[in-house]
């Protein structure tokens, strides 16, 4: 079990902490994984990992985006696609996410609305609160509004097509974005506990409550992200102190003891 240190990416709207990453654009560090006990890039400790997991702090609204699926990304970007999901860590009162479109529109209708800076009526907004979960498959138009802190789990890809940027003047990728947009929708799951799984990842919230619990996965490596509580995780005779938003990489077959009063999100690649 390795405690991880994030790679931090500052943005004009807030920041991202890449808490689990072997992506070349930014790697997290595995504490104690070096031969001399030092921290090393996660890829040096485990090789490549198919997921990229982030904490996103959105102080302002992000651009409206859409991501390609694997088939498109492989041909046009030489990359994995990007299917992802969000778990809401914190939300300002009345905050929402943009998740899909309000109807079925032609590419030309959307292209014209983007060019004329009037895409807002086409965007579907859904209210969210702390503890909610929403799945964002590749091809679903989406945006994160300001006032949200999210745990994001995605394929290990840094491909984003920015469809619309609220008139802020940054580069947009309209034609690529429209070519991968699909007629999809997704609904938030309130007070998510899981389990949830798709073709790429699985998530389950584990609440230790009044007594310690053990967490393991026989088949796959897994991630433990501390949602709340504090103390120490124990694995194979070793103990690691932790607090909310600390992240641990655990090997398949390892058993981790989670202390009473702690809640963790267990995440695994599929």
TrEMBL record:
The record lists the membrane-crossing segments as none
List the keywords (alphabetical): Isomerase, Metal-binding, Zinc
Task: Return the SUPFAM superfamilies for the record.
Answer: RmlC-like cupins (SSF51182)
Q: Which GO terms describe its molecular function?
A: mannose-6-phosphate isomerase activity; zinc ion binding
* Cofactor: binding details: Binds 1 zinc ion per subunit.
Enzyme Commission numbers on file: 5.3.1.8
Annotated residues that bind Zn(2+) are located at: 67, 84, 142
What's the name of the protein? Answer: Mannose-6-phosphate isomerase
């Amino acid at each position: 079990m390795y405690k991880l240190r994030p790679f931090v990416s500052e943005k004009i709207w807030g920041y991202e902490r890449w808490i689990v990453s072997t992506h070349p654009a930014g790697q997290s560090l595995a504490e104690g994984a070096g031969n001399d006990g030092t921290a090393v890039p996660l890829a040096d400790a485990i090789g490549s990992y198919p997921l990229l997991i982030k904490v996103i702090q959105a102080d302002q609204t992000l651009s409206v985006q859409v991501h390609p699926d694997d088939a498109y990304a492989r041909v046009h970007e030489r990359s994995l696609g990007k299917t992802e999901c969000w778990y809401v860590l914190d939300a300002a009162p009345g905050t929402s996410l943009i998740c899909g479109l309000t109807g079925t529109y032609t590419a030309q209708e959307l292209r014209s609305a983007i060019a004329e800076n009037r895409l807002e009526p086409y965007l579907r907004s859904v209210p969210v609160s702390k503890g909610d979960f929403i799945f964002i498959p590749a091809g679903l138009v989406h945006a994160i509004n300001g006032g949200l802190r999210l745990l994001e789990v995605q394929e290990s890809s840094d491909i984003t097509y920015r469809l619309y940027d609220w008139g802020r003047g940054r580069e947009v990728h309209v034609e690529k974005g429209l070519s991968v947009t699909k007629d999809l929708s997704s609904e938030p799951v309130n007070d998510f506990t899981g389990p949830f799984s798709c073709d790429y990842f699985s998530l389950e919230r584990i609440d230790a409550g009044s007594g310690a619990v053990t967490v393991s996965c026989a088949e796959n490596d897994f991630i433990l992200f501390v949602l709340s509580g504090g103390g120490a995780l124990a694995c194979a005779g070793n103990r690691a102190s932790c607090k909310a938003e600390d992240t641990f990489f655990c090997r398949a077959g390892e058993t981790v003891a989670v202390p009473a009063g702690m809640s963790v999100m267990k995440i695994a690649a599929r």
